[in-house]
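I am writing to request your help with a piece of structural work I have in hand. Thank you for your consideration; the sequence and its tokens are set out here:
=====
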Amino acid sequence: MALNYTQDQVEYITNQYRLKPDRDTVEKLSKELNKSIKSIIGKLSREGVYKKTEYTTKTGEKPVTKLEIVQELAERLELEIWQLAGLEKAPKSTLKALKENI
């Protein structure tokens, strides 16, 4: 079985990524080693150093579904989730306003 990376390359990419763990580093390594970005990410993942970038909303918050907001409302109001059936169809901004003011 042919190896895609030499031990020196593995040490190099893991060290470079640890110094600056971001997408730019992955792209730079991809060009330097003539490997695909997916290959670099895969190798970093197998080496246990890759950190997946977490998705955030336009406002910089972690995304929350409307159902999760309704579940939290039910808990705060000490109700069962089925008692708020249909509320998840309300606009997200309305649900957030309710949550913040309860």
The chain has two domains: 7-46, 66-100. The CA atoms of residues 18 and 32 lie 17 Å apart. The two ends are 61 Å apart (CA to CA).
